[in-house]
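Listing S7. Sequence submitted for prediction.
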Amino acid sequence: MSDDAEFFGLAVPTGNDRRELYKSQYRAIYTYKMSAQDLDAAFRDAVTSSEGAHGGWQINNDERVKYVGKLEVKKGDDTLKVTFEDYPEAGMSALKYYTIQSYNK
């Protein structure tokens, strides 16, 4: 499902041809050679699984339409924002993780 990649304890799905484009203390951007629908399935497996140290998150405030858009994930007192983007013409999708601090700036 996922390897050891994580962002503030939130698992990053392995997916197909994952690339880390950017990572800072406030956000991370990953691209995948897969559809947003397939990425959604990999994300849900990696994040909500009770197995492993980076799973066990709950998905809240899912505002996505056809797998594209924003949602929040929560585990205990920790809440992170996640954005899904789809680039079907390139056969790629992107996953962006944000802390609440960066999202409100």
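Caption to Listing S7: primary sequence and predicted structure tokens for the chain studied. The two ends are 32 Å apart (CA to CA). The chain is about 15% helix and 45% strand.
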